[in-house]
Here is the input.
Amino acid sequence: MNSTALVILFLSVFVLLALLPFMHRSWTKRKGQGETDAEMARPTPPVSVDGPGSVLVPQEAVSEPEPEPVVPSAVKPSFRDRLGKARASMSGYVGSVLSRKIDSESWDEIEEALILADVGVEATMNVVDRLRVTAKEEKITEGPQLIEALKAQMKADLVADRTLDMGTEGTTVWLFVGVNGVGKTTTIGKVGKRLTDEGKTVIMAAGDTFRAAAAEQLATWAQRCGAELVRGDEGADPSSVIFDGIQAGAARGVDVVLADTAGRLQNKVNLMEELAKVRRVAGRDPGEVREVLLVIDATTGQNGLTQAKRFAESVDVTGVVLTKLDGSAKGGIVFAIQQEMNLPVKLVGLGESAEDLVDFDPDEFVDALVGVD
Here is the structure.
């Protein structure tokens, strides 16, 4: 072998030895990356609970991702701030009445304002007829005095017991009913957070077994508030799921069981009969149904009154939760529900956050509704 060949061989060996550490690191990285990709591609086994029927899902077993924390509002939501749409529908008429002495047009404007706010024709006529009597007896001649008399009368008409009954015996049950899309499940979540913030213990029973998303939504709220959840298989008997939740509540001594139900159209006889069955089963020992809360979307206006009548025929409704009041120009439905159904509005939704579900305050509501922007 000549000297040139030896030089070439020596240089080749030298280059190979120099590159060997880099080749080793590259091979190791590719091998590790391949294992990582394989692990990521491997399917995650689903979390399941063996056995038929309802199951109690403790907090540590809830598989939903941690929801975004709800940041409490620094200030309690104001009826006046949140009822801008409802007030705007009346303010033109109210402003006109305020600007002059009482005449025939004043009464027409008050009627139109109340009907436009969806107080309803029957309830409006009742309000105006009594207001005429008051104006005559008290010799009211000025517009501002008439509006003040109207507000005082409306506030008096809304006097009612709006407490939420926690009960003293048995396992307290609050049953939530209503048509599709009014916000029952979200309302239950907000009520649950409110109760747990007050230091009470809560079980949520996912009685809406026909809509898979309802149980998942309720699970997220249960995790958020620190409540427990009882749920059943999709399509399971709602009565059984709710009764299982009540039994779990009795065994654990919880303060209240919040029971969800499937949304149903009030004109479907078979669905309303099923709801009546749910109510009967929920009242069996150890359960004590202390509240049946009808959830109504305020934006539906007078249709909400029709819903209230049909639901009251099937279950013993104790009060109303009015959602989306902040986005409605039809807040007057409160008067129609109370006057024609003798049902108090107990809670109202004034926004999206949990803290925006507040106790209904008649005085604040009337002042906000019958005002001028």
Remarks:
- Residues 171-317 form a domain with the Rossmann fold fold (CATH 3.40.50.300).
- The first helix runs from residue 3 to 41.
- The two ends are 105 Å apart (CA to CA).
- The first strand starts at residue 55 and ends at 57.
